[in-house]
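hi!! sorry for the late reply, been swamped w classes. u asked for the two structures so here they r. pasted raw, havent cleaned anything up. first the sequence of the first protein and right below it the tokens
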Amino acid sequence: MSRRQPNVVFILADDLGYGDVGCFGNDHVHTPHLDELARDGVALTQHYSASPLCAPARAALLTGRYNHRTGAVDVPSNRGLDRIHLSERTMADHFAAAGYVTGMAGKWHNGLHDLRYHPRSRGFDEFTGFLNGGMDYYNWTIESAGREQSGDGRYLTDVFTDAATDFIGRYRHEPFFLYLAYNAPHLPLQAPAQACQRFEGLGLSDEVSTLYAMVEAMDAGIGRVMEALDAHGLTQDTIVVFTSDNGPQFGGGLDRDNGPFCGAKGDALEGGIRVPAIVRAPAWLPSGLQAHDMIHFCDWLPTLTGLCGIPEVRSLDGYDCTCRLRGESGDIPDIRFWQRNRYEPIPHCNAAMRDGPWKLVWPMREGADWKDPVDQAPYEEGLTSPHQVRPLATGLPHRDVGPASAPRLFHIDEDPCEMQDLSAAQPARVAAMTRTWDAWFDEILAQWHTARADNLMEHSTQT
């Protein structure tokens, strides 16, 4: 039995696929600490991100609401498309209100260029990390204790691990919520040289070898975090969650095994949104369990606050899935939605819906994933100057988008690889699911327009 209010350590990897971890079937990568976490806890085999892209996925994770409602639908920070609307309460807000010390180490990517969107304005007492979408692992520039800090020879994954273990040590006598958002194994591909040597002769590309070395370095960091909890006698009292923001980045030599799934980062197919997840909570959950029922990013906020005895949070899209983490299905709806393209959301475009075992998928429309080159420059500037406060680019670029393709229907329980399209044999089901998806999209699109307008108006009054 737990002796105190539980701590929470939420560990998020970046662009880590279902097939990138040893305990989820990868024989090349050595992840002993994640493997041990799975043996001691619950491995989730049907766990879904809210989006196949970074900033939107994180917005849904932190708010328990579909990312469109929050305003975060894309990654260009210079256009404010990664921002969580100021009216939204984050996971850190809820834990802080319950008396927790809250800290974050790692990648934010949910609003910059305006200090009101900074992690310390969104519920976090402490922040060590960077605000934009990527960072060099050696020549890094981050914020720590409110000050800019530049690379000191340490590998960035180790910097965030150091910050996490320091936080745990300083607040070991208080309930705490720690969000450890590693940027590994996101680009750029950089790993300690000795870590890459182990993959020589395995028939892997240099790019995949480096990426796997990055995963192993992150696993070593997670091991240090677990050791810190144990050293301070906090293991029994701490809920640890590990997952990834979306599926793996492919292309440029990075194509690799993604478990049994089609698709990758950016896709509404399983490979883009179905991600590994592990949760360990010795005083509350069983050990050595595989949970096969669907759990979604939006479920983590109500599940964790429920486990911690924090009053129920309303107006969420997620559900308290504690029963599923205990191997019980529970009376939880199994209808979920996804949609992702560049800039303004487009209907029936790289979209999906789950209704129990059934999944309806629309492919990306032609032209809808085009990114204006203008938006690349601020991203690259952010690698070295990530804390600038400056005006937003308020307009969205025009692009010609092709018509929607007919949706495809899959039975995910029987066909997780999404190989057999059953839409022709199930026209009534396709029509009914389309109507449900359309109603959802109309609702969240209206909320996105409101959040977008408010974000731009609020920013203009501050610059």
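now the second protein. again sequence first, tokens right under
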Amino acid sequence: MDLDNYKSLIERIVTEKGVDAIPKLVELLTDENDEVREIAFETIQRFGDNAKPILLKIFKDRVHRAQQNDIVLLYLIDVLADMEEKCIKQDLYQLLSRYDNESAQLVIYEALAKLGDGDTVIDILCYFVLEDEYKDQLAEQAIMALAHIPSEKSLNCLVDAYKNKSFSTEIRQDIIKAISMITMKNPALWDKFTKLNEPELVEKVRQFVY
């Protein structure tokens, strides 16, 4: 089935079933086609908080399966964290050991940051950005996770990362975005930021915000 047909099918299922379509959409998160998975995920997000009870049930069921490297769980973690569903936090810490891929673990670290546990994951996130030998591949994820931790430590980490000239233009732009996010969430950080003697970076963040 081509992509347009998939889109039409998904829209029809959603129109006919409403939130009851969510289990079927979750099944599509295992599709071998990246675009199909993305369409299914975006459709789930469109339901907003109305989807929360069903998503939580599916989440708990999959947690109890104890399957290693469960990709569907990562999608569920992402959307439930966006919904600020804090009841999943304890499960997230336990789920870290089920994934042997650092990129997958970063999805969980970012979810914990979104849910207010940034202090517990900030050190590992800074490690991924500044120290890890695979930082070029993992930096984008780690930087956007840091964007959910409006603290001085997160700010300093992002500023240090920006000084790394080996990072691509795209990653450096992500750093600018992340700094803008944390300074907007915690305006007191702006004064600290402007005193770090990085006038070029300050101006770029200012331009991004305004």
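hope this helps!! also noticed smth abt the second:
The mean pLDDT is 92.
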